[in-house]
Amino acid sequence: MNLKIGDKKPENALNAIFDLTERILRESPEVQIAILSKFKETVKELQKTFISKLHSEEIPDNLKIETVDRIQGLTVDYTIFLIPNASVSYSLDSELFNVATSRASRCTIIVADRMILKNFMSNEVRRFLLKINGNKVAALKPSVTQTIKSGELKVTVLGKIILPEKHLKEIVADKENIFIIDTNVFVKCPTIISKVGKYKVVIPTIVLEELDRLKLKQSIDNKVLNDAVKNINKAFLNNYSSMEEGDPSLLPAGFDAQKADCLILSVALRYKTEDKKPILLTSDNLLQSKALGLGITTISLKDFLSERK
Question: Which residue spans within 120-252 are E strands per DSSP?
Fold first, then answer.
């Protein structure tokens, strides 16, 4: 598309990206999308555009708008990489460009000036841009074609690449799998509920109480806690998750029914007695040992995230 020279906040690109994102989410509401740019001022303007057009005070959890420098290790379904027609060489830096274009498991869309190939860039970056020149994305089934348009921006998807679903080894196919999440997981990964996917998520009451008490600790980042609580509230409102109180009567003799870990275990035990498959997600080694001793499947946050990649 035509982008004004020197403008790091190109209004036509910002609006086109919003419209394109809205169309993708309309088709697949649960997908994860990253909208990236090199420059902070570009990202701030993108965030303002989305907040204004969404009539909301915050951006949805499955949509991340950030500078490329801040998303190392991020994996999403779709990436939209905006390259303003200003200081273009910084956006085309080989290392930064590679990070921006390797985040998506399904599709990367680059929004840039139509004359971008006239800029200086490495051979690797040039080859990448030449492959997508013409606004086409290579795919597996050319018989099925879909074109998404927004103003001057057009993306033609030739067919559909179907990626194999990544199953956790802890999942049992013929049972209802239920994830029970410990407090420490929310502290380290506030968006964990969205990462569990289609499976039921249960949050023990004691976990919410512990999150509330953690606000008083100076060593804990309150922003992380607030993000975790917001995501939990959203999950409750949308019936993605439920809260359940522990039942000390289910615990074997010798377990302290007053301890938080034991109450969390009792929630898992309830589902085990119902012939369901509880999976305790915790990074607490001792709690994992207790769970395994009771025949409850457990997985650490690190292993969970690693298996989902």
Answer: 136-137, 145-150, 153-158, 177-181, 200-204, 241-244
pTM: 0.51
Mean pLDDT of 199-213: 93
Q: Is 74 left (phi over 0), alpha (psi -120 to 50) or beta?
A: beta
Rounded to a whole number of angstroms, the CA Rg of the chain reads: 23
User: Contact, 43 vs 74, CB < 8 A?
Assistant: no
- Is the domain spanning 177-308 CATH 3.30.70.270? The answer is no
Residue 100 in tokens = 């921006």
Question: DSSP state, 3?
Answer: -
> CATH topology for 11-158?
Rossmann fold (3.40.50)
Identify the band that residue 27 occupies on the pLDDT scale cut at 50, 70 and 90: confident
Q: For 8-25, how does the pLDDT look when each residue is reduced to its tens digit (9 = 90+)?
A: 999 999 999 999 999 888
Task: Please report, as a single letter, which amino acid is at residue 132.
Answer: I
36: helix, strand or coil: strand
Geometric angle at alpha carbon 278, from 273 and 283, rounded to 5°: 135
